[in-house]
Amino acid sequence: MARRSPTYAYVTEMPGNQVAPEQIEMIVCRYAWAARWAAGKDVLEVACGPGIGLGALAARARRLVAGDYDLACLAVCRAHYRGRVPLLRLDAQRLPFPDQCFDLVIMFEAIYYLPDPDGFLAEARRILRPAGRLLLALPNRDWPGFAPSPESRRYFSPMELAHHGARAGFAVKVYGRYPQARLTTAQRLLRLVRRVATVLGLVPKDPGKTEAVRRVLKRLAYRRLATLPPEVSVPPDAPCDMTALPLDRPDRLHRVFYAELRAP
């Protein structure tokens, strides 16, 4: 039986959701990192979701195009930006662009949803100009507090991502951020509840109901929540310190890793 076409809106943090303040800081960090590479460049963000970081990229890029596969995410994005950014429905594995037309391609928190991540890496390599870059951000599956998303297919380790990136023709660097050697009691509880809910199929696929479940889980782990805005503000000097990771062994310390893949 063919696998059904997935929806991703219910696993995506949407504007108006209640999130931990550190989650907003994580979003600001990764777009601050991307914005520095985007300055004066032609930029594509694939899997942009509701477009929370597009304003920061548009303010620095020479040209910005963005897209997502999920129509619900695109509708939220279009309602906010109102034509400020060209938005397309995109299949990351079959990008509708000519060869060598972008300097920077971005995909944050999404490569693990793709049926064919190697196809996306090949497509990104194809549309990048010489010395162009692909930037990725994803959770570290080897961190003790990791819990997979319900629609995910495969999470890469830094070693695996470097291998697949090199096979697509990239030079790869991987960085870690948010080191945490031990989980708090609240984080252990949150991880347990999330895993049980996922295994038992208790995560609803209606975005509104999913947010209600998330809000309860977050209240267990965090005393204070913040409202996710439709567009984050990214100061030019926003901090985003990273630690270069070795590519010959797993990293179990950092919660998130970032990959910079450079075309020759």
Number of helices: 7
Low-confidence stretches: none
**First CA to last CA: what distance?**
41 Å
Overall morphology: globular
- Taken as a percent bin, the fraction of beta residues is 15-25%
Fraction in helix: 25-40%
Order of helices and strands: EHEHEHEEHEHEHHEEE
Largest sheet: 8 strands, mixed
Mean pLDDT score: 88
Give the helix/strand class. Answer: alpha/beta
Strand order of the largest sheet: 4-3-2-5-6-10-7-9
Radius of gyration: 18 Å
Count of beta strands = 10
3D architecture notes:
This protein is an alpha/beta fold and 264 residues long. It contains 7 helices and 10 strands. The protein has an 8-stranded mixed sheet. A two-stranded antiparallel sheet has the order 1-8. The longest helix has 18 residues. The radius of gyration is 18 Å and the shape is globular.
Describe this protein with a few key phrases.
single chain; 264 residues; alpha/beta; two-stranded antiparallel sheet; 22% strand
Blueprint of the fold:
Elements: E1 18-19, H1 21-38, E2 42-46, H2 54-58, E3 63-68, H3 71-81, E4 87-89, E5 102-108, H4 117-127, E6 128-139, H5 158-167, E7 171-179, H6 185-199, H7 207-221, E8 226-227, E9 243-244, E10 254-262
Parallel strand pairs: 2-3, 2-5, 3-4, 5-6
Antiparallel strand pairs: 1-8, 6-10, 7-9, 7-10
Helix pairs in contact: 6-7
